[in-house]
């Protein structure tokens, strides 16, 4: 069972860049007092990468270093992990896996406003069209803990935070 002896749940919030992971995770952290871990920021702060990818304009994450860094606090529980990938995290870490999804026209505008261009923009839009992250989550975690939530507007984010806050309040560790 995923929960082990944790007193608080661990939640993974994943999805294509621009779907609202960090906003949702921050608001959920405020509402539940769970610790928000932004993996992208952690990678930068602790140098958990193998250099820079000029084509994709991002760090090349070292998944082993990230998992080593997070192991102890994940075992404690009470974490919201925010990252666009999910297949390298151990299955035992999470009690809920949330895949945020955004309509392509909304996502295109969000990513363009962030300065995404060329192959980086195209790759992320295609990733969303083909539901790559939802399939990755379903292949990596038990089906009953994976949930897809729409994240197109502020109302969606508020509803998602409310739904997830209720889930946290009703969560019970395995006995």
Automatic annotation (TrEMBL):
Pfam families: AAA_18. It is an enzyme of class 2 (transferase). Residues 38-61 are annotated as: NMPbind. Residues 113-123 are annotated as: LID. One of its GO terms (cellular component) is nucleus. Residues 12-25 have a biased composition (Low complexity). Gene3D superfamilies: P-loop containing nucleotide triphosphate hydrolases. The keyword Endoplasmic reticulum does not apply. It is found in: Cytoplasm; Nucleus. Its EC number is 2.7.4.3. It catalyses: AMP + ATP = 2 ADP; ATP + H2O = ADP + phosphate + H(+). ATP binds at residues 18, 20-23, 114. One of its GO terms (molecular function) is ATP hydrolysis activity. Keywords: ATP-binding, Cytoplasm, Kinase, Nucleotide-binding, Nucleus, Ribosome biogenesis, rRNA processing, Transferase. Its main location: cytoplasm. Residues 1-25 are annotated as: Disordered. One of its GO terms (biological process) is rRNA processing. The keyword Nucleotide-binding applies. Interacts with small ribosomal subunit protein uS11. Not a structural component of 43S pre-ribosomes, but transiently interacts with them by binding to uS11. Broad-specificity nucleoside monophosphate (NMP) kinase that catalyzes the reversible transfer of the terminal phosphate group between nucleoside triphosphates and monophosphates. Has also ATPase activity. Involved in the late cytoplasmic maturation steps of the 40S ribosomal particles, specifically 18S rRNA maturation. While NMP activity is not required for ribosome maturation, ATPase activity is. Associates transiently with small ribosomal subunit protein uS11. ATP hydrolysis breaks the interaction with uS11. Belongs to the adenylate kinase family. AK6 subfamily. PANTHER family: ADENYLATE KINASE ISOENZYME 6 (PTHR12595:SF0), POS9-ACTIVATING FACTOR FAP7-RELATED (PTHR12595). This is Adenylate kinase isoenzyme 6 homolog. It comes from Macleaya cordata.
């Amino acid at each position: 069972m995923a929960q082990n002896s944790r007193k608080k749940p661990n939640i993974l919030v994943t999805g294509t860049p621009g779907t609202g992971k960090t906003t949702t995770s921050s608001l959920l952290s405020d509402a539940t007092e769970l610790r928000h871990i932004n993996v992208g920021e952690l990678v930068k702060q602790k140098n958990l990468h193998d250099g820079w990818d000029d084509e994709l304009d991002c760090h090349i994450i070292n998944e082993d270093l990230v998992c080593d860094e997070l192991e102890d606090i994940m075992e404690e529980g009470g974490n919201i992990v925010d990252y666009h990938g999910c297949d390298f995290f151990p299955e035992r870490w999470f009690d809920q896996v949330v895949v945020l999804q955004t309509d392509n026209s909304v996502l295109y505008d969000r990513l363009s406003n962030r300065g995404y261009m060329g192959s980086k923009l195209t790759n992320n839009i295609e990733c969303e069209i083909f539901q790559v992250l939802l399939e990755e989550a379903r292949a990596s975690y038990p089906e009953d803990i994976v949930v897809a939530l729409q994240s197109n507007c502020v109302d969606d984010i508020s509803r998602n935070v409310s739904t997830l806050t209720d889930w946290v309040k009703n969560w019970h560790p395995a006995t």
